[in-house]
Amino acid sequence: MKRKLIRSLPLTAALVVVAGVIFYIHDQAQAFADRPFTKPETPVQRADVSVVSVEPGTYAAHISAFGAASAHYQLTLNAQVSGQIDDITGEFEGGNRVAKGDLLAEVEASSYREALASAQSTLASARVDLLEEERRGEQAVAEWKASGLSGEPDSPLVLRKPQLASAKAAVAEARAAVDTARYNLNQTRIVAPFDALITDRSVAPGSYVQSGTEVATLVSTDRVEISVSLSAEEWNQLPDQRLLTGGQWPATLTNIETGQHWSGRIIRARQHLDDTSRQRSLVIAVDAPFNQSPALFPGTFLQATVAGRDVDGLWKLPATALSQSGEIWYVTDDNTLASFAAEPRFASDGAIYIVPPKALAVEKERVVRQPLSSYVEGMAVNPVEENSHV
Questions:
Q1: pLDDT of 46-76, one tens digit each?
Q2: Whole-angstrom distance, CA of residue 38 vs CA of residue 55
Q3: How far apart are CA 291 and CA 225, in angstroms?
């Protein structure tokens, strides 16, 4: 009996070991089955994007508007007296420049010299009559006193007071006639009323003109003026009007066709709204435009750029940073894309200036230089920073 028991012990131990192994394998399998399933990680594909680092700053607003240059004065010069054009000067040709007082043409003046001489003769006679009347008046007063009569005579004619007044009036009339005759004689010399460019000549030697006949068209050469219309928002970006229109506030003018530049100054602001545009206009002047290099001619269509007041809290970005849909795209801290709608406050020299959202106006942000239409919010990217030259 004892021998049988001893023989069965190894078998029993083997069965115990096998059962333990089976239980262990079962527990491990159950633990493996209870673990959550996860897919193996794959690397995220990130597109390279060119960005520029920006932070809020203070910038002077720049307002751009368009207008045509016009002469300070434009005049149709008319004859003031009638007669035949006796002579014109060599400078009296279209396209020439003349100075104030330069002789342009002369009207035949013999009749006007005669009229002046006649008026001077009449004046001389009137002065003689006045002297004689003064003498007669003194004599009449002396005779009245010698008569022994007291008081004033019944009629002022006795002391010749009305006669003296008439003689004085005749002298004044004759003097006025002399002034008129001399003025008419002077007007036979047609002269430039100001420094001017002759744009058109309408008479020739032998032409007969009457008072009011057109002789020439002149434009002044002292300055040109450019009137540009501004919106209410643009006016708000400019400094105080007294400072703006003091004659020293600068403006830059650019020829739309050639790109040539001139420096101008603000001289006044119109105090009414245009009936068509419903906007106020700012007037810019360029002094001595024909002496500029190159010359600035009336009629030139120009873009005017005016510096405004300083504006705080703006981002200065390349103009390409604004997408076609009017959005600014930037890279977040986790290198994904985000965007916001923006409207530039102003633009100049290839840069735009915008007001960022308050949440982005604290630290530097990475703004995409040239966003693509395929960008979506949350897209993973690899930002590549470039130095900004705007």
A1: 889 999 999 999 988 888 899 999 999 999 9
A2: 42
A3: 15
**Using DSSP, how many helices (H) and how many strands (E) does the chain show?**
5, 21
Q: Which residues pair with 287 in a beta bridge?
A: 223
pLDDT tens digits, 149-161: 777 888 888 888 9
Q: Is 215 helix (H, G, I), strand (E, B) or coil?
A: strand
Query: Quick one: pLDDT band at residue 311, thresholds 50, 70, 90?
Result: confident
Model pLDDT for residues 209-258, shown as the tens digit of each residue: 999 999 999 999 999 999 999 988 888 888 888 888 888 899 999 999 99
Give pLDDT, residue 4. Answer: 44
Phi, psi angle pair for 215, to nearest 5°: -110, -45
**Helical H segments across the chain, by residue range:** 2-34, 110-146, 161-186, 232-236, 241-244
Q: Which residues does residue 131 pair with via DSSP β-bridges, in sequence order?
A: none
> DSSP character for 12?
H
Average pLDDT for the chain = 87
Distance between CA atoms of residues 259 and 42, nearest Å: 55
Hey, what are 206's tokens?
């032998």
pLDDT-derived band at 44, boundaries 50, 70, 90? low
Amino acid found at 256: I
Give the long-range contacts of residues 376-379, CB within 8 A, separation 24 or more.
376/337, 377/337, 377/338, 377/339, 378/336, 378/337, 378/338, 379/47, 379/336, 379/337
Strand 250-255 and strand 301-318: the pairing is antiparallel
What b/e sequence results for 178-206 when a residue is b if at least 16 CB atoms lie within 10 Å of its CB, and e otherwise?
A: beebeebbebbebbbebbbbbeebbbeee
Q: Smallest Cα–Cα separation from 77: which of 187, 172, 223, 222?
A: 187
Distance of alpha carbon 206 from alpha carbon 46, whole angstroms: 87
50 burial type by CB count under 10 A (0-12 exposed, 13-18 middle, 19+ buried): middle
DSSP state of 152: -
Query: Could you give the 3-state DSSP secondary structure of residue 93?
Result: coil
What's the first-to-final CA gap in the chain, in angstroms? 106
Burial track 133-162 (b if 16+ CB lie within 10 A, e otherwise): beeebeebeeeeeeeeeeeeeeeeeebbee
Written as six digits, the tokens of 150 are: 């007291």
Distance of alpha carbon 49 from alpha carbon 330, whole angstroms:
10
